[in-house]
């Protein structure tokens, strides 16, 4: 380290609160026997349980102090960690991990103790800081004492707020003994002396069981102030026998030894009837809003390549029929656009087109989403709900990612296809529907059926009229046409005037493989328009792996002169290999810096400049 760098470091230490009163000569002695260490993101600086042997001063970067997944906070430049190691040899009580590339000054306990024994100036400086902190604590204690009256006033206001609330507020302990109840709670409980009574005695059997289960779950994984909505409506039975229905929340506070609970209940008797009448309309509105949102991102089907023109021919052939259609293609190829085109050209175009992604809905909810449910069919079913098949009556339903439909639901779908009927969840009444089914998947469903992951009879029922959508990389100049249309669309949407693609730029689009197909192209174009400068876009930096000759797994031609971008990619790959081989250790004999033959500080700078981040 140069003298200038050393002076800068000493200036920095003088600004650190822990050493702010220490003389410069003593700081120099402190620094001489300390170590500069570098940590990249996600590297552990202090491990909980290890015996402390040093404290650390953060010179640059940011760290988090935590115990497993629980975070106590973050520290950054100028902060110190591990100070207790200076006065005892107890195991570390927490872990400290770098959140980003971080440099620290490690001050060993032995060296700190030696300075305390030999350097009076050092002792004087450290003691001055400690005395200053002690005086600050005295001031804080005085402020706390003077605010006691304000706290008492605040408690009085809080009590007034609780008693004045229209919702019932009941606080109880782990044995369900009521500790506090406001006036609204005493009204619904029909009892003015409820303290020390068991809250469960005022609930019906289902409500009592539910509350017991919630309390047990909170006791097993205690989370202070964690609010939880009651999963279903709870019935309160007053001392005089009056029954009322409520929704509410349950929260807990305290510590792991003793936990208290707050139950807040709101009477819903007056609104249940009205909610039941509008529930189906709200559900249909939600579906329609989702469809409108999808339509606003629709760029239409642009096709000049013969493979895509064949798809358009198939659409025109099948649209006027009632045949079930199975669309197959890679993710992002536009399967939904094809489904919309079939619906729009069919005799059902005036009816609804209802879409559902079978892979995006949890397995325990998808049956209810498809076929609807009756009130009370399962926990949380507080009202009846129409399924998407019923909403699609007289129209079309588009089952996207049909290959993800659970096996146990496939017979129910097969029944709809064959007989046009189904039973909602929790109902014994059969519903009849007139629905055309269009399904789509990126999977090979025939192979899936052979592997036992998809019903073979359902596959053949769906595969009446198959349509194969080609990948974008196989559509030749279509990618340039679609890109032009998207550039124009996002230019208008974002109020940016962007120049049209040149022939050279179109070539870049055609050379890239587009693994994400049209969806990837759309996202890339939108991002490019956002970052454009003066109507110019450097597509060579926007499109990934623009030069196919240096793609992963390929070698560079012997006579090829590498560009600066290619050299950067090669250097990044080489550094990544070294880091993986050394398990992301940078400095030391067996570190990546030694393997690459560069100083650790240089390697750390390169890692940061190239955007290399260690996987968590």
Task: Describe the 3D structure.
The protein is of the alpha+beta class. It has five domains: about 5-145, Jelly Rolls, CATH 2.60.120.10; about 155-265, PAS domain (Beta-Lactamase); about 280-325 and about 335-465, 3-Layer(aba) Sandwich (Rossmann fold), CATH 3.40.50.300; about 470-545, Helicase, Ruva Protein, domain 3, CATH 1.10.8; about 545-615, Arc Repressor Mutant, subunit A (Orthogonal Bundle). Helices cover about 45% and strands about 15% of the residues. The chain is built from 22 helices and 21 strands. Strands 9, 10, 11, 12, 13 and 14 form a six-stranded antiparallel β-sheet that branches. The chain has a five-stranded parallel β-sheet with strand order 16-17-20-15-21. Strand 9 (about 170-175) and strand 10 form a beta hairpin. Helix 1 (about 5-15) crosses helix 2, helix 9 runs parallel beside helix 10 (about 335-345) and helix 13 packs across helix 15 (about 455-460). It is flat.
